[in-house]
Amino acid sequence: MEGFQSDLQALRELVRDLAQRVDRLERKVNVAAPEPPAVHVSPPQAPQASQPSVPPPQLFERVADLQPRPDTDQADLESRIGSHWLNRIGIAAVLIGVSYFLKYAFDNNWIGPAGRVTVGLLAGIGIVVWSERFRSRGYQVFSYSLKALGVGVLYLSLWAAFHVYALIPSGVAFAAMLAVTASTAALAISQDAEILAAFALTGGFTTPLLLATGVNKELQLFSYVALLDLAAVLMVARKPWRRLLALAFVGTLVLYIGWDSEFYNRSQLNLTLAFATLFFIIFAVAPLLARQPEGEIAPFAAIPLFLAFINAVVYFVQVYAMFEEVDKHAMAWFALALAAVYIFLSKQTQRYYPDPANIQRLHYLHLALAIGFITVAIPIRLDGHWITIGWLVEAAVLLWLGDRIRSTFLNAFAIGAIALGVVRLLAVDNFEVATLIFNARMATFAVAIAVLGALACYASRRPDEFNQRSAQIAIVALNVLALTALSHEVADFYGRQQVAIQPAYRGGTYPQYDAAYSANARGIRLAEDFTYSALWMAYGAMLMIVGFWRRSSFVRWQALLLIAVTIIKVFVYDVSQLDKGYRILSFIVLGVLLLTISFVYQRDWLQLSGANKKSQEHA
What are phi and psi of 134, to 5 degrees? Predict the structure, then answer.
């Protein structure tokens, strides 16, 4: 029995040692571990039938796994340093040494201009060919790094042949660089390597910069850029390389801005507008064709969304900059046309977009852009308070559509448009009214109040908390706007009376104000102060009546708050400022109002006490 146990322990140690050696060898050669063959261990024959049977080989493997293994992190680090890092540093050292040798040879004229370019071209091609040897051995990342270096050497050699040594004309240099770009793209497709496609695009967009001569060649430049963009779209339609779209858009934008800042003038408007529109169409359609990669990192998954948004903004800014001095109002119709385009794209998204995870996001983004362009068109085309009315009407249309199709998305944009209109109405619009009540200011306030009422009506129909809260905010804003509008009318009414009693301007000077004028002016001021108190009391009473009629505690609380403010004004301000007549009238009216409201609550017409008892019983 003891011999059997010692043999079993020795077998366990042997299996564990073999497993560790195989693991180290597999890590060193970087290959997947094959399935271990079945090991059959025959137990020693024992004469007694009571001897325990030998456990199956799977048990040996589990036992070996449970045994503590030596730390292999240091061995792995040593392997990476020896096989990867030293290799790369050695290659870099050789390249640097060769570069220094070539520079020394160039400085001493050992090699002429043609020889220098030839050496560069041969070196670039050699590095690209050499990189394939590393790729075939599994070192793909290092192989791609070498390819990037080789392609870069090719571009720089061709640039030197054209710009530095003038050995070849621009057409030949351009064709050669285009061949390098096409070859790199072909390698990317054949090897299914997105990084090589990025190298090809980078080289393609760098080519115009390397061959720039300071001469305006808009047609040739933007035709070439459009071909590059189309090639990028074709690649992302075949391969899940959506990051190439961002690279192509950035390259296009950089070249456009560089050309525009140096060469653009108004005589080139038509051609420039045509190319800007072509670029816009390419990048507006590209997100609909971009294939969805598997296991894509989260930030990169949003590239089509970001591209759709930034493309719309950049195109609008480009066209606005071109038309600002020509016909600014035409931009309003242009913005509406863009809105129609994005409404069309929002429908096409649900048909063709190949990314089911983000299809709704892109659909809503297109709708948001359409609404945004409509919102922008209003201040471009209209002036003054008509901008406010335009935003409010837009909000009303969005509310109606949102209610018809039950879209919270449209309702959210409607709320945003209402906020824009209300803020502009209160903070920006400056009205000069000629008549009271029936004027542009009251009409604008009436439109705002009506839209807020519609928002409260639509939102109150939905049971969710967001819509209920939106309805309450809309009701509060509605009452604030109504009080503000009526207060403006009161101020205008008494302001006109103040102007009417002022002495006439005669002989270049104003006559001295007499006691009668001062008394009249003070009387008008006191009447104005009393009117504000009476207005607030009347509005509070109206709110209280509506609250009782609609059985709305929310409206009644607003009435109580407004009445509380009126009480403070009467007891603090009116007592010290108003004459006895206005003071007596203010207190009497306020007292009657308060007693009436108190009597209604005491009669319990709304049966609030019963509701409180029920709530206490339930509690």
Answer: -70, -35
Return the higher-pLDDT residue of 2 and 337: 337
State the DSSP code for 51: S
Amino acid at 450: A
Alpha helices in 140-242 (DSSP H): 140-159, 170-191, 194-210, 218-238
Instruction: Kindly give, in sequence order, each residue whose CB lies less than 8 Å from that of residue 209, ignoring residues fewer than 6 positions away.
Output: 255, 258
CB 398 within 8 Å of CB 410: yes
Does residue 116 form part of some domain?
A: no
- Full DSSP string of 576-591: HHS-HHHHHHHHHHHH
The pLDDT assigned to 59 comes to 43
The H or E element spanning position 305 is helix 303-323
The separation between the first and the last C-alpha atoms of the chain, rounded to the nearest angstrom, is 77
Name every residue whose Cβ is closer than 8 Å to that of residue 467 and which is 6 or more positions away in sequence: 411, 458, 459, 460, 461
- HEC profile of 40-78: CCCCCCCCCCCCCCCCCHHHHHHHHHHCCCCCCHHHHHH
Q: Does 21 map to a domain?
A: yes
The DSSP letter of residue 509 is B
Q: In this structure, is residue 610 part of a structural domain?
A: yes
C-alpha distances (whole Å) from 262 to each of 228, 255, 580 are: 22, 11, 76
Q: Are 116 and 135 in contact (CB under 8 A)?
A: no
So what's the pLDDT on residue 143? 83
Asked if 522 contacts 492 with a C-beta cutoff of 8 angstroms, the reply is no
- Tokens coding 157: 């050699």
Tens digits of residue pLDDT in 67-111:
444 455 555 666 666 555 665 566 566 656 656 665 666 677 777
Per-residue pLDDT at 284: 92
Judge contact between 503 and 513, C-beta under 8 A. Answer: yes
Interval 390-418: pLDDT, tens: 999 999 998 888 888 777 888 888 889 99
Confidence check: pLDDT of 64 > 70: no
Helices (H) and strands (E) in the chain, counts: 24, 0
User: Which of the listed residues 47, 70, 93 is the one where a domain comes to its end?
Assistant: 70
pLDDT at 4: 54
For residue 371, what pLDDT is reported? 92
Beta bridge partners of 509: 506
Question: What pLDDT does 294 receive?
Answer: 59
pLDDT (tens digit, 9 = 90+) per residue, 179-206? 999 999 998 888 888 888 998 999 999 9
User: What residues make up the domain containing 598?
Assistant: 523-618
Total domains, the chain: 2
Give me 345's structure tokens. Answer: 């794209």
**Residue 246 lies inside a defined structural domain of this protein:** no
Q: List Cβ neighbours of 397 (8 Å cut-off, separation of 6 or more).
A: none
- The candidate with the shortest Cα–Cα distance to 524, out of 550, 548, 491, is 491
In angstroms, the CA 249 to CA 229 distance is: 8
pTM for this prediction = 0.68
> Which two tokens mark 303?
């590239």
